[in-house]
Amino acid sequence: MTKNPRGRPRAYDPEKALTRAMETFWAAGFTGTSLDGLAAATGMNRPSLYAAFGDKKAIYLKSLDLYAEHLREAMRGILLSDMPLGEALEAFYRGGIDLYLSGDEGPRGCFISCTAPAEAMVDEDIRAALGATLTEIDRGLERLYAKAKKRGEISEDADEAGLARLAGAVLHSIALRARAGEPRAGLEAIARQAAKTIR
Amino acid sequence: MTKNPRGRPRAYDPEKALTRAMETFWAAGFTGTSLDGLAAATGMNRPSLYAAFGDKKAIYLKSLDLYAEHLREAMRGILLSDMPLGEALEAFYRGGIDLYLSGDEGPRGCFISCTAPAEAMVDEDIRAALGATLTEIDRGLERLYAKAKKRGEISEDADEAGLARLAGAVLHSIALRARAGEPRAGLEAIARQAAKTIR
DNA sequence: GGATTTTTGTACCGAACCGAATAATAATAA
DNA sequence: TTATTATTATTCGGTTCGGTACAAAAATCC
């Protein structure tokens, strides 16, 4: 138990609040989300939001970070599982699909790849955060393909970096299609086809 | 020469104006674009904009339509060219890359897949327009693979619908990566890898 | 040349927006 | 109890937003 700090205690849990903020941005995008909307979603009022996380853009960037951390965790899980390539890819996509179809306001797609692009041309920081996430996905999948090559699951002269970016492309597309309303069966079919074809 | 209409003549070319409006939405997205911005870009004033195209959302939907029409044209060109599958795919991707990297405010990505997703969860019409475009791409590529199968370029029991959606996924990803700032060489490498692998 | 029609340009409206300033509140420290 | 500190709650200011009302302008029709 940590000692209580000096002043009035916080009425919110910063981690939960940021998660709620992320979900709000996820649904409506950066420009489509108002501070009032964030306040309503988090149960905080605007001054508290500002004190806790900074201005609207800072909250959005922190939300992107939180989401990226979840992504990293999922990627770690896949890499540590040591499944054969095909199974690992299908598990990877399945995790994405489950996430993209979650939420009770309809399918959400990927928070980053479905909301950040709209801002990427007018905001350099958001563009950079988007780019960083894309390369993280590529790097993770590259490790997956490198392991598969070591195990002899793909040909010795296969281009693991190229294959990884192809596999990443499929995730991007699944995210987009989910947000456009494509039902789960279609998304799973793409995942299956990708796991079979990209090798 | 068509007869002149009755009242004061228009000071703008509706087609050019819509193109400029589309470019404005392309850069900043739907919510990120103001009517003042559209007026500045088109050279029209807000009342004229409203009279010509309707409210802000109508202008955006018409812009999506205009873009989709360009896409259809490109797809027709590829299908009519009767190139071998690999060449056709590379030409298809090259057209996308050229478009996605055009514009003097930095790389733009795909207008539809980079700006519509942000609105798709809160606006059913935009969601539907996005979905319609995605299926159009799938259908076009499906025809391409069907022709390749008829020519014996891919195996007789290949799943042309599945392959088409994989090939479409690569286009979505190239669009996203372009908007995130990935240089042309990287995009072209993905295109090459896809044309080689997805068959 | 006057009436009519269509578009343009200016100005305005209420609403929503972001951020900050200020006051009230609830805890600890002395 | 009193002072201090950190947070909450209310309010406000200035700006921007989307959309419209209204008058001026520019063409054709009679």
Please describe the structure with a list of short key phrases separated by commas or semicolons.
homodimer, 199 residues, 9 helices, elongated, DNA-binding, mainly alpha
Please trace the helix and strand order of chain A, writing H or E for each element. HHHHHHHHH
Q: Radius of gyration of chain A, rounded?
A: 19 Å
The proportion of residues in beta strands of chain A is under 5%
Largest sheet of chain A: none
Total number of helical segments of chain A? 9
Q: Which structural category do the helix and sheet elements of chain A fall into?
A: mainly alpha
Oligomer: homodimer
Give the tally of β-strands of chain A.
0
Name the largest protein-protein interface in this structure. A-B, 49 and 48 residues
Low-confidence stretches of chain A: none
Shape of chain A: elongated
Instruction: State the distance separating the first and last CA atoms of chain A.
Output: 51 Å
Helical content of chain A (DSSP H or I, runs of 4+): over 70%
